[in-house]
């Protein structure tokens, strides 16, 4: 389960990076349903925030084996941040990061339960 949390976290963040690379071009092309007068001035700031959020997610995915509780929290924070920014654009990334975060938290719960039984 630790390996699956690691893979889901890293793949989810990488998919988010790919989407965030194409999102500004998509917004500037006029194909976006968002009002262009609102989207254009803020798209650079939104992209910067999303890249920071995705770095938190990829770091959480990388820490999933050693520090599973911290990694789970980081991946869930990243998924919630993407959900707030743009839920439709980052749907797959949100899904993978959320599942990876939940798996990592389940791993830490099992580890704490096994320690308390001993």
- Overall pLDDT, averaged? 80
Largest sheet: none
Structural class: mainly alpha
Euclidean distance between termini CA atoms: 22 Å
User: Number of folding domains?
Assistant: 1
Helix content: over 70%
- Provide the succession of SSEs: HHHH
Describe the oligomeric state of these chains in a short phrase. Answer: single chain
- Overall geometric form: elongated
Number of strands: 0
Number of helices: 4
Low-confidence stretches: 29-35
Strand content: under 5%
- Cα Rg: 16 Å
How would you describe the overall organization of this protein?
The chain has one domain (2-117). Helix content is 84%, strand content 0%. The chain has helices at 2-28, 36-62, 68-85, 91-117.
Structural topology:
Blueprint: H1 2-28, H2 36-62, H3 68-85, H4 91-117
């Amino acid at each position: 389960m630790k390996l699956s949390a690691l893979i889901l976290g890293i793949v989810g963040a990488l998919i988010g990076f790919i989407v965030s690379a194409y999102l500004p071009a998509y917004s500037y092309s006029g194909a976006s349903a968002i009002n262009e007068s609102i989207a254009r001035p803020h798209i650079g700031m939104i992209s910067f925030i999303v890249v920071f959020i995705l770095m938190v997610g990829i770091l959480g995915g990388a820490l999933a084996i050693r520090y599973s509780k911290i990694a789970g929290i980081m991946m869930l924070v990243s998924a919630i941040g993407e959900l707030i920014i743009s839920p439709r654009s980052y749907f797959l990334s949100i899904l993978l990061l959320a599942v990876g975060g939940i798996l990592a938290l389940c791993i830490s719960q099992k580890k704490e339960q096994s320690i308390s039984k001993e």
